[in-house]
Amino acid sequence: MKISGLSQACENNKGPILAELTQIFAQTQRVLEIGSGTGQHALHFAAHLPHLLWQTSDLAYNHALIKQVIGTAEGDNILPPLALDLGQSWPLAQVDGIFTANTLHIVSEELVRAFFHGVKQHLSQGGNLCIYGPFNYNGAYTSDSNARFDTSLRQRDPLSGLRDQQWVVDLAEAAGLELAADIAMPANNRLLHFIRR
Ligand SMILES: C[S@@+](CC[C@H](N)C(=O)[O-])C[C@H]1O[C@@H](n2cnc3c(N)ncnc32)[C@H](O)[C@@H]1O
């Protein structure tokens, strides 16, 4: 059965992201994904990282699609979505990995701060945080396509918008995380890898 509502961008970026996560999450046991969206990343990463448990989460309106997509998994290491809204407390205990893709430019700055508050509370010492998406550097776009994307995001919701990498790193450091790597990814995206001190 063909599932509608899938993302072509996820199909394009899941391979390059997995290549990095394979190294970063090599010793990780339980990953919480924030804003699982369509569930395509969860399906792909869990299948290729069978040593870990992948916990999906998102706002409730996305749960039906996530469940449909992860329902096609052959393995048993993906958990159905938690109702996790960054504006509220997170409904789980500690994990040793957190992954999120394309969320920090969607939610408001206030919710980005709430994201790091949650990371501080729920990521265990030595745990890995990976954030995938487009970022600005020193207040500047890294490409014309990112500039156009930012304009379209802000037209749709004035609270959305590309975040400055340094602002994100500062919030992470204040939450007890250290930037371990800032990896260039295809299509002017980045993968920020932090480790919880
Ligand atoms: C652009 S989509 C990215 C989805 C997926 N991670 C991907 O890369 O395709 C942004 C995601 O953020 C989620 N989101 C928006 N507001 C949120 C909030 N307050 N708390 C948690 N997730 C939120 C949306 O439901 C959506 O799944």
UniProtKB/TrEMBL annotation:
InterPro entries in alphabetical order: DUF938, SAM-dependent_MTases_sf
Pfam family, one: DUF938
The protein's name: DUF938 domain-containing protein
Native source organism of the sequence: Pseudoalteromonas qingdaonensis
